[in-house]
Design brief:
This is histidine kinase. GO terms for molecular function: phosphorelay sensor kinase activity. Keywords: Coiled coil, Kinase, Membrane, Phosphoprotein, Transferase, Transmembrane, Transmembrane helix, Two-component regulatory system. It is built from 22 helices and nine strands. By secondary structure, it is α+β, with helices and mostly antiparallel strands. It has a five-stranded mixed β-sheet. A two-stranded antiparallel sheet has the order 1-3. It has five domains: 34-163, Serine Threonine Protein Phosphatase 5, Tetratricopeptide repeat; 168-253, Serine Threonine Protein Phosphatase 5, Tetratricopeptide repeat (Alpha Horseshoe); 255-335, Serine Threonine Protein Phosphatase 5, Tetratricopeptide repeat (Alpha Horseshoe); 457-509; 517-660, Histidine kinase-like ATPase, C-terminal domain (Heat Shock Protein 90). The longest helix is centred in the middle third of the chain and has 140 residues, at 316-455.
Length: 662
Amino acid sequence: MMFSLSRHISNIRFIYYSMPKLVLFLLLIFNSADPLSDSLTLELQKTENPATKASLYYSLARHYYGADQDLAISYADSSIYFGELADLPKMQGNAINIKAVAYLIKSDFETSMKLNLDALRIRENIQDTLGLVESHLNIGNILYRTGKSFEAAERYKKALAYAKMANSQRGLSLLYNNLGSYYRDKWISTNAKEDLDSAKAYLSESLEIKTSLNDASGLIHTLNQLSELAQGEKQYMLAENYLKRSLKVSEGINDTELQISVLTQLSQFNLEVGDKNQALNYAKSAFELAKGMGSNYMISNTANYLIDAYQEKGDYRNAFEIAKQKLEADALLFNESKQKIQDDLLIQYESEKKELENQRLLEEQRFLDLNLQRKNELLIGAVIILVGMIGLGVYQRKKNHELAQAKKKIDITLAQLTEKNDQVEKQSVLLSNANSELKEANSIREKLLSVVSHDVKAPLSSLQVLLEYWDQKILTNEDLASLVPRIAKQTKTVQELLKNLLQWAQTQMEFNNIQLAETNLKKLVDESIQFAIPTAEGKNITIINRIPEDQTIQTDSNRLNFIIRNLVSNSLKFTNPDGQIEVSFESIGKGKIHISDNGIGMSQKKLESLFHKGMGPSIGTAGEKGSGIGLLLCKEFAESMGARLEVESEEKKGSTFTIVLG
């Protein structure tokens, strides 16, 4: 009963006395020289650059957020302001984050959450992966401290994903540790095995990373949690190993307070497992270290564990002696607190005074910056107006000169138009005469075609019938011999007619005279496509002209028209209904014209026989007959212009004919 009362009194005194101790620490901060703060402040006085100011104010905010949250918030606001002036969103996000952490330390969770969400939005926009780790971790911490552990764990998992992306080992160690703590607390509440397994898995990951980083304090924290889990599973040997390893780490970094913390845990653990002697040894070690520190608070705290150990062994005399030393330490601690309360008031006064001075300096700096900015804006505005007026005067003068030149050109053009009008009238007479000659030529052509229709078709039909009879053995050799002279005579007549027709066509189109001229390729292809539209509509095939409107080339338009028209016609024959044909242009060398279809394509053997006189006939997708003569003519016409034909094809996928202009 006496022991439990002393433990209760000790806990109350710890809460009461720890605040003056913290206040004394802060007083030492304010009264001691701060080279980093002085250096940053000096740099601020030297620079006028907004980006540099934003960085310096951010560094000051980071420097002060642990010791003076209000001052850190003020510096963070200045960093945000200059970061916005310099258009540095990453700096703004970092400064807002520091401000949020300061409010979290002040336990203003609502403001801290709002600021963290603002920082998160900025970091998402600029894809700041490390910043996203930090923001999600901070939001998770706020949720955890406000009792929303499940939402906190979800945030930790988001932060963990970003930490893996950024390969942030320190971030990973923190997040694995936090998630391990979450599942440990959940396991304590639910006693569910899956929560225990998750806690061990996350804490083990954290332990591995902290070991590689040589993070001593983090290692001790994680090892203690793993020991707690092992105790819960009654794996006492494993739990003790974790605590002993924790003790070894604390001894390695020469941190007496950490050593005392681990020793007291080992003492408490051994009491629970019934090893009273070992518990007493650890408690004694902790008490001796506390006395060596000369800290009345640590002496009082470690005395509690030593009293417990002596009482468990039934050694009440030594328990009483330690209790007396504890009361002496508590009395000294109480006397010290009176002076610390006075120090607390002095610190508050100095802190408020310094904060007011900093605020005044910040406002003065902002005023100077705004004043300078306003002067710069006015100067820039005046320069823009002056330049605009000069530009307007130059423009007006140029326009007047252009108008005078335009009037002069119009007068010259009117004179030229009058002269050309006389020429047009003379040409009109010439065109009228040419039109009469053209009508006469058309009449001759119609007569010629009529003759061809009768005198060519009839002999060929007769020849076909004759050969069929011969094949069917209806005619004898004597009958055939008597008919051959007549057939020869008709064939000669057909030959002469074809010769005359070719000579006439050659004269009309002037194919022997290459006439190169600047030609709009888009219009020329449109004209060629017009001849194929009826056939395309019959098979429901789409023909697309993808050549740019302003594409021009140097070519003989008549010959190129003939080639494109025949190639499009060829594609129509061998494209299935509902298919598609495209004509496009590629600006390589003097240019390439592609005619592509998604028809039946050709085998490699068929492809190799193209452009050869011995190639056989072929049947189109709708039964159309093709002899290949058109392709031969296309090849010859292309070569006559210095161009060449290329073809690519694959069965069941289609073909592409390319006219490579020379």
